[in-house]
Design goal:
alpha/beta, two-stranded antiparallel ribbon, 3 helices, 30% helix
Length: 128
């Protein structure tokens, strides 16, 4: 699951394209299938979103929650791909993007009535 935060006046107009860019990177780097898009957007009022100095109102935070198993070099490739594609397709400067990957053990995920370690029918690989 991916959660994206930003100032609503900046985030709302680009949500659909941003989702496409993020999912494109997830597919190309992690091999996620087309139908595994799980994005949540949290558009915030300007007064509810504090961010570091040197950033513009386009500052966007992307939290990627995933089951553990991806190699560090795969995670780094995902982050670098996101920076590159967000800049080229949405003109989001890397200084205005913060990306964090939060990993949880498969047994800490619950979906379709089971835990992640019980799922043996995933259409994608976790250990990449």
């Amino acid at each position: 699951m991916i959660v994206v935060y930003g100032i609503k006046d900046q985030l709302n107009p680009i949500k659909a394209k941003l989702s496409d860019v993020i999912h494109g990177c997830m597919k190309s780097v992690l091999g996620m299938p087309e139908d595994k898009r799980a994005h949540r957007f949290v558009p915030l009022e300007r007064e509810d979103f504090y961010y570091p100095g040197g950033r513009s109102d386009a500052y966007t935070v992307i939290e990627i929650n995933m089951m553990s198993g991806r190699k560090p070099e795969t995670q780094k490739a995902l982050i670098k791909s996101l920076f590159q594609e967000l800049e080229s397709q949405l003109s989001l400067a890397p200084i205005d993007v913060e990306i964090t990957i939060k990993e949880q053990q498969p047994h800490q995920w619950g979906f379709r009535g089971m835990t992640g370690d019980e799922a043996n029918d995933l259409k994608y690989k976790v250990n990449v």
